[in-house]
Amino acid sequence: MKIQPRQQLLELWEAAARASYRDGVWNWGGRDGSNSISDAEQLLCFMYPAYELPAFRLDTPDDTSDDVLTALSVLGDPMGIPKLLLDVLGQYLRKYTADDGRPLFSGGSYFRPQDEEAKVTPEQLQLDVVDSFSMSVTLALGTLGFLKIFERSVRREKILREIGELRELAGKRLSAAMTGLLRSFTFHTFDPGSTEGRALLRTVNQTGAPERRVLDDLRRALGPVRAGLRDLTHGLDSRKKEDLEENKNLLFECGWTWGIVKDAPDVDTRLDIGPQPKGVAVDRPFLYFTVNALVGIADLFSERTRNLGLLNDDQLTLARAIQHRWDLTQSYWRTIATFGRGVWPLEDIPWRTVDERESDYYSLGVTAMVVQSLVKNRSADVDLDRVAGVLEELAIRARITRRAVADDPPVRMHSPGVAINLHGSDTLGPHLQWVVSDFAITLLKRTIWAASIAQNTRIRERLLTLADQIWRHILLRRHTDGPAAGLWDQPGNVFGDIQTRDQETSWYFTERVVEFLVSAAKSIEGPPLRSPQLVELAYQMLGEAEHLLDHELVKRPLLPGQTIQPKLGSIQASLQRARAIISDRPATRRR
């Protein structure tokens, strides 16, 4: 891999610190203004590497690396950096807490009216959105872990009090975000003969088999997911589960809608989260928001969360309910995407949704869920090989690894991006949209995820080669001057048709670059792949060398008092070391 994640992260930290902290003041907001998601993304550019990578730790001042201190020198010295982060985290947590104590998860300036002439109403700006729930889970867990470790280095009573207050605020925000995720999960049922049913059957039927047989096979394949959905509690309307149970002929989709579902019941919990707001979001899952929810939810049951004991008993109850939905959603989408014995539906690009909309972005969303499922289950390389083909095809179609021509439609996925209609938002004002432009970096994240679990050297090399190609594209999109120099995103650097030249940082895009670099660093930390053929060859070579050594030991005369000649003894020690490491590193010479 040519990415060099440590060096790239240090350069990104230096640029992000310079952009965020000017004249002794923390500057919130970037290209899209300040809101609960953008501000969390800005903070995660610092917090995420700090708690995921030991070499980037900021919570133990005495152990902070010199190159990290150099990169973040604008923020202060080893003790000044975590103290500044305390202050900034406090600003964020207090800013997005309402007067009644309820944590706020509004989309704010990320909401766009479908009609450019319309104006978003104040009520719409305050609508909770799934992206904020997901980001808040990651940020709150990172904050709680940071506070837990940093507290050990603190003696001043004032700072200890601040840590205690932030722990309470972060815990409350985490609980509220988990509750929001439960109330924004949904499943949508439909008849096989409906427009949605026919669209789904067309998607899964890649061999032209009789529809009756495909329908029966699909029902059997989705049987465990259907049973799991019927058992769900917390935040779901019981009438939906009754419909699913009473009519076993219905097909369905499951996942997360864009916000709290309209008429979603309150979650019964003893946790202090303030009043639970009413929802307006349409009761149907969205691919984009489902993928983002799954990414944030994974942090709830990560090894770090368990080891540090970041969840209390009541939060663990919510986490188990969320994990159940996480498992069901992944199982559903992997079943749909890989259904049948021939070509996978996922390989039939672009993906078609049940409302008969087609887009390469939808293919990327489904691919993301399949890759996440493969990572979780450490799946066979035969599946990874097929996924690699989809990722390569998407990179070509999005003009990432191929040159774009004039007026090339795929360029619009990068700028202005793909607009997602937020159905239900029009009950409070004009119809809203959510515009996403993260295709390239999301593709890169899924590619490195897949490479991290490949056990076949050919497949891993194929995926890493693709990752290097996409990364070169991403690097070209960095700002080269102005306050955002060294950060993202300036797609006009790559695509000549894009005339827009932004001066401010897109924390939305930059934070996803940080996630990728952290994933790349963690994948490099793992052991190298072991080729069975190489291991067998190493054993054959070692066997021959040991045989020759034994031959020499038999025929060489010894001086009085010697058991073995010094030179042969050195050879024997080397061969013993070789046998000790041969299974793990058959091609490595260790002195």
Quick summary:
The chain has helices at 5-20, 36-52, 66-71, 80-95, 122-125, 130-150, 157-183, 195-204, 211-221, 223-230, 238-246, 287-297, 303-308, 313-337, 360-377, 381-397, 439-453, 457-476, 507-525, 532-555, 566-581; strands spanning 21-22, 25-26, 111-113, 185-190, 251-256, 351-352, 358-359, 418-422, 432-436.
Describe the secondary-structure layout:
Layout: H1 5-20, E1 21-22, E2 25-26, H2 36-52, H3 66-71, H4 80-95, E3 111-113, H5 122-125, H6 130-150, H7 157-183, E4 185-190, H8 195-204, H9 211-221, H10 223-230, H11 238-246, E5 251-256, H12 287-297, H13 303-308, H14 313-337, E6 351-352, E7 358-359, H15 360-377, H16 381-397, E8 418-422, E9 432-436, H17 439-453, H18 457-476, H19 507-525, H20 532-555, H21 566-581
Antiparallel strand pairs: 1-2, 3-9, 4-5, 6-7, 8-9
CATH class of the largest domain: Mainly Alpha
Distance between the termini: 25 Å
Overall spatial form: globular
Enumerate how many helices there are, as a single number. 21
Description:
By secondary structure, the protein is mainly alpha-helical. The protein folds into 2 domains: 5-529, Glycosyltransferase (Alpha/alpha barrel); 533-581. The protein has helices at residues 5-20, 36-52, 66-71, 80-95, 122-125, 130-150, 157-183, 195-204, 211-221, 223-230, 238-246, 287-297, 303-308, 313-337, 360-377, 381-397, 439-453, 457-476, 507-525, 532-555, 566-581; strands spanning 21-22, 25-26, 111-113, 185-190, 251-256, 351-352, 358-359, 418-422, 432-436. The strands form 4 sheets. A 3-stranded antiparallel sheet has the order 3-9-8, with no helix packed on it. Helix 15 (360-377) packs antiparallel against helix 16 (381-397).
